[in-house]
């Protein structure tokens, strides 16, 4: 089962590649989505999913409060995430 986490307070210039590079070190990403507005510009948040719960948990623990592109990002379980057992 995929484990989804939300990343908020992203710099509007942070790219999907930047997110993938920063978060793939914790495990296999099954999805990485940067939310865009109608003008195809970042809304400042993204959702990523890992194959394993422990990978997602490690990413949350290590990256919440991390400074990325000049902003302190917030990383937490996505509200829509399935069971985290």
Automatic annotation (TrEMBL):
One of its GO terms (molecular function) is RNA binding. Keywords: mRNA processing, mRNA splicing, Nucleus, RNA-binding. InterPro entries: Nucleotide-bd_a/b_plait_sf, RBD_domain_sf, RNA-bind/splicing_reg, RRM_dom. Pfam families: RRM_1. GO terms for cellular component: nucleus. SUPFAM superfamilies: RNA-binding domain, RBD. It is found in: Nucleus. GO terms for biological process: mRNA processing; RNA splicing. This is RRM domain-containing protein.
């Amino acid at each position: 089962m995929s484990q989804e986490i939300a990343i908020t307070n992203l710099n509007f210039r942070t790219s999907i590649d930047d997110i993938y590079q920063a978060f793939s070190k914790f495990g296999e990403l099954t999805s990485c989505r940067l939310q865009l507005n109608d003008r195809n510009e970042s809304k400042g948040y993204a959702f990523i999913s890992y194959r394993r719960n422990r990978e997602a948990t490690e990413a949350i623990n290590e990256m919440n409060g991390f400074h990325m592109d000049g902003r302190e990002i917030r990383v937490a379980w996505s509200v829509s995430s399935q069971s985290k057992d």
